[in-house]
Amino acid sequence: MKKNETHWAIDLGTTNTLIARWADTHAVTVALEELADYEPAWHTPLIPSAIYFQDAQRAIIGRPALSAREIMSTYEMQGIGPLARSFKKTLARSSQQAVAQIGIETISARQCATVFLQELLHNCEDYERKNHQPNRSRLQQIARALRWWRREGQVADLTMTVPIDSYEPYRAELYQITRKLGVSRFHTLDEPVAAALGYGVDLTEEKFLMVVDFGGGTLDLALVRTQPAGSGREGEQRKARLIAGRGTILGGETIDNWLADYACERLPAHQSALRPMLLAQAEAIKKDLSNKANIADSSYFLLQGGVHIEVTRMEFVEMLQRNGLYQTLETLTEALLDDCRHEIDEAQIDAILLVGGSTLLPGVRDLFERLFGAQRVHYWEPFEAVVKGAAVFGAGYSVDQIVHHDYAIRVYNDEQQRPEYERLVRRGTGYPTPNPFETRYYAVTEGQQMFRLPICEVGYAGRTSLNWMRRMNGNEYWVPSDAEETECVIALNEGDTLRLARPGQGQQARLRIDFNIDSNRYLCATIHDLLLQRDLRTEERVVKLR
Fold it and tell me: Total structural domains in the chain?
């Protein structure tokens, strides 16, 4: 980051979004008053991740967008309309899918995210001009004027946080959108790592921090090691290293759906017709029952005609138990600890940091206090830690990260007559790697002139493991079910092909491929033709890893 230039950070959440900026020595959460609602218990300025389209290019976002909720009741019954929420989930997996509609014109998740971020950045620019422009030097004011003349955004340096179990295409989408909006220096940071940096824990000493980030759309767990700057060299940066991470698609919106289903079960009739009305109230009911300061031990859904469905806190806890919330938390925790047993023992963890509004659900904090002891569980920074940590990162805190998913080559299993996957990069691998990191040999069939190397990203999609099996050649293979393949696999380079100078001439190995991962997270390949004894590609970037 250039000296004296404002660094901005955005925590784009499924339900709410937060903004922060680096204020010379520390990170400050920014309250965009026209867009934000203040969370009552913690007084945090949360911007609802909601957008109401006036046309395909213009929209209102945040709190004003939610004021349209009442006039949107017909759309809630019939499907998508001009009001869009939860577009982050769709952007992460299928960016061209429609999430809003005006008349007959549909609006994709990519369009939605672009307009939402555009409006957000414009508001950040207005905030900066009103509150900090008078303090800028003459050179800084000239630089801002030049950015305007070049049609660049006034927010030039930005970090956005991403869920730990998101796929690389999600990062790529954010990068393309922000570049289009004029951001010249853009970074992404895993949400749990950002939380570790922004929680307020003393980072002048080495710490092992376990982060539980439970928000509106995802549940992420990570173990982060923070290290102070070395005393030997002036200007040496403090560093954080991600040791292991786990995640699943479970969040506050999931709980809202469970609550709506629970209320439907209490209705004598018309459950499907009334469910949209119940779902619209579920978030408020959930907050009531999660707020320990709330004296009342129950809350209720209100239906037409004064009919209400009461839900007590005990019934809420029992519902969470039946749906497996606490078991999921324990299972993911055990999986995370198992992933990093080679480096750290459970007793060495200095603190467990609870982040995200869903950590306020009854029983969540109690579970981690039971597992790790109350003295190690920190719960007083549930909303702002992630965005503040992203601003700290933007100001120069160095982070060493890992590859979060498995990466595999899709090959064809002749025996089973279906595709299978040959693991190339194991999740948890640090980068950059030595060159070569992996070497593989491939045969080509008689007369074959084109060679394809389809690289796929393989996540867990909420599972704790996948059934990789080692074979006689020393490599690991996975033959997924149709459901596993649909949910866990994303192909990254379907169209890439290599033309062979001479066609295949038998069953012997024809190509040797040396793989490595560079410092920018790219999988690189050197392809050597064993028949012609020459390199066809040299350290060529194949795909970017997550």
Answer: 4
